[in-house]
Amino acid sequence: SKAELANLVKIIKAVAITFNIKDLQTLTANGKIDADFNIKSNLKSVTSSGYFKLPDAKLYYGLYNIGLDNIKAFITLNDNNINIQNISLSVLNQPLKMYGTIKSDSTADLHVTSQNLSLKGLLIALGQAPLMKENNITSGTISLNADAIGKLASIKPSAKVLLNNINLKNIPSNTILKAPNTVVNINSDGKTFSGNIVAQNIKAINP
């Protein structure tokens, strides 16, 4: 079946306004989803069939003056195997991509990459736009290499994140944070997380 992305956004906005959530009213979208699939999983096995396609779409959030362009997705779910051939988008011409597989025995091999992606755009892509209500972000980019490997029930994620030229103001505390260069490494054995942060010349200014 096919569905217009704009119509789905209209439904989301209508539901939001019934709960007096007005921030989504400046959200607009275009593009068409082509999907016909079934999927079930108990984290030990996966049963799936069908496909999910999003040839080309755009999303614009007027409230924060930021857009997601070139949103594309192509996922096949045949023979109880999920093959994420491509999920991608771009913010200010900088891409974020996801690809990988989840097999019928729930073994996952997933990867996410981005290069110089706008921090504001990433927050919107992750559904965290409300954070910008209390944080005025004037600059900042993120480069990311993340992997998630192993059984779904005990998956082992790892990530290396480069934060560059972060400049934001936390409105409630009236604090300005400047972080020109920060490297974050995160690892997990499937049960606990560990990592380290290397930062240079961080400044927190509270007049």
Task: Describe what you observe in this structure.
The chain contains three helices and 13 strands, in the order E-H-E-E-E-E-E-E-E-H-H-E-E-E-E-E. Strands 1, 2, 3, 4, 5, 6, 7, 8, 9, 10, 11, 12 and 13 form a 13-stranded antiparallel β-sheet that branches. The protein has 207 residues and is mainly beta.
At a glance:
The protein has 207 residues and is mainly beta. The chain contains 3 helices and 13 strands; from the N terminus they run E-H-E-E-E-E-E-E-E-H-H-E-E-E-E-E.
Question: Keywords, please?
Answer:
globular, 13 strands, 207 residues, mainly beta, 13-stranded antiparallel beta sheet
Element-level helix/strand string: EHEEEEEEEHHEEEEE
Largest sheet: 13 strands, antiparallel
Helix count equals: 3
Shape: globular
What is the CA-based Rg, rounded?
A: 19 Å
How far apart are the termini? 56 Å
Strand content: over 45%
| Residue-averaged pLDDT | 91
> Which regions are unreliable across 5 or more consecutive residues at pLDDT < 50?
none
How much helix is in the residues? 10-25%
Oligomeric state of shown chains: single chain
How many beta-strand elements?
A: 13
Q: Structural class from helices and strands? A: mainly beta
